[in-house]
Design goal:
The structure holds 2 protein chains of 2 kinds. Chain A is built from no helices and 11 strands. By secondary structure, chain A is an all-beta fold. In chain A, the strands form 2 sheets. In chain A, strands 2, 4, 5, 9, 10 and 11 form a 6-stranded mixed sheet that branches. A 5-stranded antiparallel sheet of chain A has the order 1-3-8-7-6, with no helix packed on it. Chain B is mostly beta strands. In chain B, 0% of the residues lie in helices and 51% in strands. Chain B is built from no helices and 11 strands. The chains are: A mainly beta, B mainly beta. At the A-B interface, β4, β5, β9 and β10 of A face β4, β5, β9 and β10 of B.
Chain lengths: 114, 111
């Protein structure tokens, strides 16, 4: 059973508008969450992260929100740009997880239309 | 330039023919991992290593082997590949933080 789920496989948004990507998790031991971005024929690249002691983390156009009680996190991209078109993966880890293991969601493909 | 490299990038092989995918990082990272990416399943960890000569199984280790004889290299070995190992493979490395650096990927097809 997947411990990290991204229920929307795809998202289409107009340039300049907000993109909201959602992620749910089931394992209450997870205490660190990351978002990765992936372009075709490239490896995932780290985008932004949040620790469970926070409920929000912001980096430029990207903001991640964490709702621990709901076991839910979201990534907001404002404003969306055509270069943001990519697959986004949510990932989670537990403190002292062996090997810094990350558990990934299935990904959400974002298309930003000019 | 800090990077993780993988070779080959693309590979088509036949069932049962042993193969090795190489992975190398130049960041002096202790941790290295192999993941496979399959549609709808995201990335799943195959094996990981916390340092030289220290390796352990991830979530989907069946049919794979690894070794860590040097800190920079972490090859993935498929002794007898099968069609269900057709996938996109990523090597990753990290220091003590959770943020992992990924290689460009190896697309493997086993017929």
């Amino acid at each position: 059973d997947q411990q990290v789920k991204q229920n929307s496989p795809s998202l289409s948004v107009q340039e300049g508008r907000i993109s909201i990507l959602n992620c749910d998790y089931t394992n209450s031991m997870f205490d660190y969450f990351l978002w990765y971005k992936k372009y075709p024929a490239e490896g995932p690249t780290f985008l932004i992260s949040i620790s469970s002691i926070k409920d929000k983390n912001e980096d430029g156009r990207f903001t991640v929100f964490l709702n621990k009680s709901a076991k839910h996190l979201s990534l907001h991209i404002v404003p969306s740009q055509p270069g943001d078109s990519a697959v986004y993966f949510c990932a989670a880890s537990a403190t002292r997880a062996a090997g810094n293991k990350l558990t990934f969601g299935g990904g959400t493909r974002v298309l930003v239309k000019p | 330039e800090a990077q993780v490299t993988q070779n080959p990038r693309y590979l088509i092989t036949v069932t049962g023919k042993k193969l090795t995918v190489t992975c190398s990082q130049n960041m002096n990272h202790e941790y290295m991992s192999w993941y496979r990416q399959d549609p709808g399943l995201g990335l799943r960890q195959i094996y990981y290593s916390m340092n030289v000569e220290v390796t352990d199984k991830g979530d989907v280790p069946e049919g794979y082997k690894v070794s860590r004889k040097e800190k920079r290299n972490f090859p993935l070995i498929l002794e007898s590949p099968s069609p269900n190992q057709t996938s996109l493979y990523f090597c990753a490395s990290s220091s003590s933080s959770y943020e992992q650096y990924f290689g460009p990927g190896t697309r493997l097809t086993v017929t």
